[in-house]
Amino acid sequence: MRIYSSCVAILCAAVAIACSDRPPVDQISAPASAAAVRSGSGGPTVTILVNVTNDTTSQNETPLAFNPRNPRNLVTGNNDWNYNNGCGVNASFDGGKTWTPTLPNGFLPGVTRFTNDPSVPGTGEGDFGGDPATAFGPDGTAYFACFDYNGTSTTLLLSRSTDGGATWQAGGAADPLSLVTAFNGQGISKGSNGQFPDHDAMSVGADGTIYVTWAQFHGFGSNSPVWISTSGDGGRSFSRPVKVSSGSTRSDQDQRIVTNSDGSVAYVTFDNSIQGGKGTAIFVSKSTDHGQSWSTPFQIGVFTNPVCLFPPNCFNISGGQFRGPGSYPAPAFNPVDNRLYVAYADIDVDGVAKVFLTSAPASDLTKWSPRTVVAAVPSGDRFAAELGIASNGRIDVAFYDRSYTANTQVDLTYATSSDFGNSWRSVRVTTSAFDPSAWGVPAGTTVRPFIGDYNGIVSLPGSAGMTWTGAGTKNYGLLPTNLEIYFASVTP
């Protein structure tokens, strides 16, 4: 969930302040140009590294999708702290070398009451929006989901684009976004008793079925079930939400959803507490009827000490505190060995956060392999794992990595395996690290260190693309609030 503050007023005032185009300072990511080429020692090669948003205000949380009809067409999104205060969106039509600009119109219409021009109202009703999710359908239609927050009410909306993400539905009465589900602060919701929806994620199967999932924090105890709604008409309408988790699981969240190759089976993974204080685990459930029903969640495994970056409530890695991705299990289906893979972060018995991988045959989700470390290194916390699998079976993982800076600052690493995770090759994607505790989003008169809850990755037969949040070099005023969205393309 995005962290909301009175940033609208702050940004209004900031419009009158000259932009401070400061030179890079210590601990700021300095991305290479799009033409730069770097490689690990005999490993993958970084061919593109660009600043996607390239503005003067914060963005974070970076879903990424590619068009199956034109893989050079990519769409990413973000929580956008510009004046629109909603979900930002950027599209590329050249494989990620260039992107549609963030300013002035790089936001999803129909979410908030604002645009990036204070004199022009928005076509939505929200005070702010957040938790972006994006996907493409098999026909090349792009979909974008975003929460719309307005006082005590919340709606989860979906927009469509038929030109690869260059333009989206206008919103408002003339071209309204589709309602996935709605909530209000009195605990009333279509299909549930929730007060607080969070962490939406989306996937579109090869058959065109759209799956949208979220966690429902209802405020009546620790139980927070996972809900899923589906659309079979191109996102114009959605089914009544179906509850996936219940009974022996509590405080469920971090849900992600994927489908198999032909779209006949969907899988959802999520994590959190086992009833009775018996630890934290990962669960999986599947649907064989396009989301109308889901299997009883099966426990994949138990965390040793799940990464928790949610100060002041919890922060269990070393260094300055910041809000960011925690355990967040990421699933992907492998069409070559017909297995479901899951990558996640966990603090190992040696006290270092590592990225782990496990898998199970699609025919039997009770038979999970022992977890193995992705691209093992002797030291340096690794977290925020994003998992992609190409049609040729290659496994790609991207994650934040503190191995290059004596476990003090954050980089992004890409690791890849062509033998189903038995061996790995990796490369440092970023050219320099940054300190996420020193950068953040507007929070009144100060900054809240918040680099987002998730990043993005896509896997193609000959390349992998990834998006993440890093520090920028331009700011309104003096506060270090310019988090940017970055994109890299890597040749395995």
How would you describe this structure to a colleague?
The protein has 492 residues and is mainly β. 2% of the residues lie in helices and 42% in strands. Strand 6 and strand 7 form a beta hairpin. The two termini are 32 Å apart. The relative contact order is 0.15. Residues 3-36 and 189-194 have low confidence and may be disordered.
List low-pLDDT spans: 3-36, 189-194
Trace the largest sheet across and list its strands: 2-3-35-33-32
**Percent helix among the residues?**
under 10%
Class from helix and strand fractions: mainly beta
Residue fraction in strands: 35-45%
Indicate the overall shape: globular
Distance between the termini: 32 Å
Number of DSSP-assigned strands: 35
- Number of helical elements: 1
Compute the average pLDDT. 88
- Major sheet attributes: 5 strands, antiparallel
What gyration radius follows from the Cα positions, in whole Å? Answer: 21 Å
